[in-house]
């Protein structure tokens, strides 16, 4: 099997480290691996393949000889280095939002639109974490009957804000129990024992940037240009794995039995739907793995063509690192 030269841009962050882990787990055919980050991280050692990889400072010359670059860095860093990556002849699989809505850049969830990856011009975008998890959950239904609208509420874990989000929740929980002052640094408000109904910045229409991603990215990925989505994104005091409540309307009514069968057969999904026996998707059960769990499937009582469900998935893995590596795997053949 041919082996590939792979670089991770932003290797020291939570997603970059997870990419290293997933590359190893999935036995990605690597010839040479580079871990790239900012100058302040240069020289750090990261575990990989039973050994270590030394972090190098990312420069325009870092990508020469690379076949695939996995992006786990900020929008600014992605935009800064994308021209050099493309010029070097590598394919940039970028986890930031820098290029997602660019018409010339494919936006890929491999279980849904793998064929779009062939249309790349050197850059492929990884969607937003909640978008990936939600669309994997509903893609089987979209095959039964096209989705017209979705009303979604996301319950997003603190790890979605990076490693510092995890640290802040732990510190605040300890401080609360010990009666110590609670410090707020990462999030807008205290996150321990609280919910924060804002992720992203105000777009001017009452929705945040994070909330608009579900509609904008969903249209592109599922090839549904008329899809309408109303989304509310909430940060919750959960360590890892995002949860989403979704009510969708389809062109024709899908029964609960049809929905369960479609979801059970959909790639990347696991049906966990037994309310009587208290079986349903939860963050603790879906963390540190790559499958989206779907349950609480029931008729929408407000419309004749609606259905409601609940899903959970690990946003660091399927919502970021694993999805990016699955995209890279599409490039191997």
Walk me through this protein's architecture.
The chain has 333 residues and is of the alpha/beta class. It has two domains: 4-128 and 320-330, NAD(P)-binding Rossmann-like Domain (Rossmann fold, 3-Layer(aba) Sandwich); 131-315, Dihydrodipicolinate Reductase, domain 2 (2-Layer Sandwich), CATH 3.30.360. The protein is 30% helix and 25% strand. It contains eight helices and 13 strands. It has helices at residues 14-25, 75-87, 129-144, 163-178, 209-222, 256-265, 283-286, 317-330; strands at residues 4-9, 30-37, 45-48, 51-57, 68-71, 91-94, 123-125, 147-156, 228-235, 242-250, 269-271, 292-299, 306-313. Helix 3 packs parallel to helix 5 (209-222). It is globular. The chain starts with a strand and ends with a helix.
Along the chain, the helix and strand elements come as EHEEEEHEEHEHHEEHEHEEH
Question: Taking all residues together, what is the mean pLDDT?
Answer: 97
Classified by CATH, the class of the largest domain is Alpha Beta
Categorize the overall geometry: globular
Fraction of residues in helix: 25-40%
| Uncertain regions spanning at least 5 consecutive residues | none
* Number of E-state strands: 13
Number of domains: 2
Taking strands numbered 1, 2, ... along the chain, how are they ordered across the largest sheet? 3-4-2-1-5-6-7
Structural class designation:
alpha/beta
């Amino acid at each position: 099997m041919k082996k590939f030269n792979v670089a991770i841009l932003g290797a020291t962050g939570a997603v970059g480290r997870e990419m290293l882990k997933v590359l190893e787990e999935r036995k990605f055919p690597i010839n040479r691996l580079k871990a790239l980050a900012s100058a302040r991280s240069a020289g750090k050692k990261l575990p990989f393949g039973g050994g270590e990889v030394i972090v190098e400072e990312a420069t325009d010359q870092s990508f020469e000889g690379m076949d695939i670059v996995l992006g786990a860095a900020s929008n600014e860093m992605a935009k800064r280095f994308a021209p050099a990556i493309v010029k070097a002849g590598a394919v940039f699989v970028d986890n930031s939002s820098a290029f997602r809505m660019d018409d010339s850049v494919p936006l890929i969830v491999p279980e849904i639109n793998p064929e779009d990856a062939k249309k790349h011009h050197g850059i492929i975008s990884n969607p937003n974490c909640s978008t990936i998890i939600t669309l994997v959950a509903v893609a089987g239904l979209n095959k039964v009957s096209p989705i017209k609208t979705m009303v979604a509420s996301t319950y997003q874990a603190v790890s979605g804000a990076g490693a510092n989000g995890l640290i802040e929740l732990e510190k605040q929980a300890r401080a609360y129990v010990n009666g110590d002052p609670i410090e707020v640094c990462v999030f807008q408000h205290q996150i321990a024992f609280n919910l924060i109904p804002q992720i992203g910045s105000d777009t001017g229409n009452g929705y945040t940037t994070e909330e608009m991603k579900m509609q904008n990215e969903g249209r592109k990925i599922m090839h549904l240009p008329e899809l309408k989505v109303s989304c509310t994104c909430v940060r919750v005091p959960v360590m890892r794995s995002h949860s989403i409540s979704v009510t969708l309307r389809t062109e024709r009514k899908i029964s609960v039995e049809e929905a369960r069968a479609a979801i059970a057969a959909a790639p990347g999904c696991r049906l966990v739907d037994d309310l009587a026996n208290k079986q349903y998707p939860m963050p603790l059960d879906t963390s540190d793995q790559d499958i989206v769990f779907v349950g609480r499937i029931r008729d929408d009582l407000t419309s004749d063509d609606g259905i409601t469900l609940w899903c959970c998935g690990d946003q660091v893995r399927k919502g970021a690192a694993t999805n990016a590596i699955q995209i890279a795997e599409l490039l191997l053949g």
